[in-house]
Design brief:
Strand content: under 5%
InterPro entries: Sll0314-like, TPR-like_helical_dom_sf, TPR_rpt
Protein name: Sll0314/Alr1548 family TPR repeat-containing protein
Keywords: Signal, TPR repeat
Distance between the termini: 24 Å
Structural class: mainly alpha
Organism: Almyronema epifaneia S1
Shape: globular
């Protein structure tokens, strides 16, 4: 583990990216992957599934496979009633609050994520430690938003140490676990993007070797290769993700972005236009980002739909 001081560079983007992974993830689908047991629903493991819960699993698919935030929210409301002990429910609700700009709700859900995760450690220590780490990240996202980077820095760095302590505990239990490696793979990727001395190859190897399901692993690989300016490899990865999640608007947006960087304007426009047919199922800021990116490629900025008040991000 590198010293915690290495996280002083662009740590706010790290928190944002990891919380997006949990929701957006996500950043964030396997063909209706069935769990291997009648007693567990698990979108990460086809063998020896953990007991995650049907409503939580359905919410995960809606978020990460389908990019349907409206449907995901409905599943999460049901999961709160029937699967309240599952920390991923609170983590996804926390990240929805982050995207909605509801900072009080973000703080409450981050705390509930940690409470549920700490309780889970006794019966499922790998996932308990994993979501204790995620909850701390979400708490850090709230702190950065409410107190600002400079004021929150000492606390944030201490929290990052807690995050990696929990992840180390989870990795001692199973270093090849798919769910763990998805979270750590995206973390490695975010650090590699933000730290000049970090190596993105670690993220690539982790996601390729152990990550699952493929609509998330290939999405992460596409982002990694995009940031390395290896656009042909990025396109291969995003196309693989779309093979199993063909109608995910965020994946389509990332494909459009990669096509644009390859200079394939017509293909890029087609990807964005298909993505925008699903805008009603997206949070406003993601729909605006898709629209803005489309307008950039179409070279129609400014116009009535391409507000100069919105600065586009990068579909992570």
């Amino acid at each position: 583990m590198k010293p915690i001081t290495c996280f002083q560079v662009s740590h706010s983007r790290v928190f944002k990216g990891v919380s997006r992974f949990i929701t957006s993830a996500a950043t964030i689908a396997l063909i209706g992957l069935a769990s291997g047991s009648a007693f567990a629903a698990d979108p990460f493991r086809s063998e020896d599934p953990h007991n995650i819960g049907d409503q939580t699993e359905a919410a995960f698919y809606a978020f990460f496979r389908d990019g349907d935030y409206v449907e995901a929210r409905q599943y999460l409301m049901a999961a709160e009633e029937t699967e309240a002990a599952e920390p991923m429910v609170q983590a996804m609700l926390a990240s929805l609050a982050y995207l909605d700009g509801d900072l009080d709700e973000l703080a409450a859900r981050a705390e509930q994520t940690q409470t549920a995760a700490n309780a889970l450690i006794a019966v499922d220590p790998l996932r308990g430690h994993l979501y204790a780490a995620v909850g701390t990240f979400l708490e850090g996202a709230h702190l950065l938003k409410t107190e600002g980077t400079v004021r929150s820095m000492p606390t944030v760095l201490s929290m990052l140490q807690q995050v990696f302590n929990h992840l180390d505990q989870a990795e001692r239990i199973s270093r090849t676990d798919p769910e763990l490696n998805l979270v750590k793979g995206y973390m490695d990727l975010l650090l590699a993007v933000n730290l000049p001395f970090a190596n993105p190859q670690q993220a690539i190897e982790r996601l390729e070797s152990y990550g699952y399901p493929p609509y998330l692993t290939q999405r992460g690989l596409a982002i990694a290769y995009r940031d390395l300016k290896q656009y042909d490899e990025a396109l291969t990865a995003i196309n693989k993700a779309l093979e199993v999640a063909a109608n995910n608007p965020e994946l389509l947006g990332l494909q459009g972005q990669i096509y644009a960087r390859l200079g394939q304007r017509e293909e890029s426009l087609a990807s964005y236009e298909k993505a925008l047919t699903y805008r009603q199922q997206l949070p406003e800021q993601i729909a605006l980002q898709l629209q803005y990116e489309h307008c950039k490629v179409a070279d129609v900025i400014p116009n009535s739909e391409c507000s100069t008040q919105f600065a586009a991000g990068s579909f992570e």
